[in-house]
Structure prediction request, 517 residues.
Amino acid sequence: MVSWELIHKATIFIAEEMGVALKRSAFSPNIRERMDHSCAVLDSEGRIVAQAEHIPVHLGSFRVGVLNTLRWLEREGVELEDGDMVVLNDPYMSGTHLNDVMVLAPVYVGGRLVAYVVNKAHHVDVGGPIPGSMNPNARTIYEEGLIVPPVKMVRRGFVDRDLLRLIVENSKTPRVAVGDLNAQIAANRVGSRRVSELIGRYGLEAVVEGWRRAVDYARRLTLNGMTSWRRGVYESIDYLELPDRDLVLKCTLEIKGDGVRVDFTGSSEQVQAPLNAVYGVTFSATTYAVRVAVKEDIPVNEGFYSLVDVVAPEGSIVNPRKPAPVAGGNVETSQRIADVVLRALAEAVPDRIPAAGSGTMMNVMLGGYDEERGYWAYYETIGGGTGGRPGKDGVSGVHVNMTNTLNTPIEVAERSYPILYTAYRIREGSGGKGRYRGGDGIIRAFKALKPARLSILAERFKHKPYGLWGGEPGKPARVIVRRSNGLEDLMPSKFTTDLESGDEVIIETPGGGGWGV
Prediction:
């Protein structure tokens, strides 16, 4: 009889192979180069049994997004048949933000529903008033882009071309959008085929039992890893930045014998600004922080997720009501949720938790029109420093916590868009001092070669990444726009501005906090 470990590892590899297929066939550099996508395999009830090590903010949200979607389909009387695929990006259902397009497919073997495969990919533009669709000035979700509820984009193996056209024609870069959607469809087809092959080789009963035991193993291993944690209730607080005030993120964390309860009661109410995080993001960032604290190498599936109870009051910035805007909740509030939960965990597991990392994805959206390319849109996130940690300094110039992407190579960016990079280096001395110093941030600068519109959505401009146990905080972020006429503008953390040809944008990301004295 085949071992459950073999079934489990094979299923993880299926999710990894889906990611490879998606990356290799995508059109946008954001997916093809930066790997801003994630994939997972779920059982017939929609419970995660395996996922690839892709983007943390995507992965935890699958648990919320898939179950929301399956419940919605059941309520609406929509049945997923063999060869069907559902597409959606409504954050209040899929669990992240509009740019993350989710594609879900059932897997049938012998006429029986046996599993689901799912992927998310960050589309550079999904409509709305600005290139990149993550509008720093949005007051409702309707100012962020096209909202797609769950709809069948593939029916019995055939793509609905009318629906595909409707979606992509709302993007400022329709050629890229259709290429990326086709890549997502292809990835799910790979996953479906591989799951079918796995069942064909070992039998449905063995595969289902292997998945059940993998989930049980993750649960038992996680509980075992928590036995050394200090039981009790721990609180922490951190802040998000608006031009006129700060928003509060409050975390009360309780460590019990049967898992962890994290309560965000006391956090600010939802706002008319794009910093609201839907529940899927809050759950994802919270479970990520808990996973960091578990020393064992555990499978991240339903067994682990079931041990983390996340309480997020409805109507708050960590669980808003529609139509609150949420673009930055996925990329910035998620980072602060991770920071505030890790800070509480540091009291319970002091030998495992680092000081704060850079704490921002430093989202850069740029676009415009020129005769050669037509309309173009560019998006990337920029890394920073990780916090100092027990026994080691932090790491410089990497993506931290809720993002797990690569950078966009300068050569690719310059070939694809009318921009010229003028600097890309470590921001030396930006990490906080301590027994173990924080990693340094990044300086990344470019000139616009054609008129363009720039938007930045970021954090940690006012509130520095915290140090731990006497370590100093890291340096905050800074963005300067050096105009071609010689004037310099020191920019806030969230803005949209027009660039003329020759204008230079200089971005400095935060360093991590220091650990110890």
Observations:
- The chain has a mean pLDDT of 97.
- Residues 4-218 form one domain.
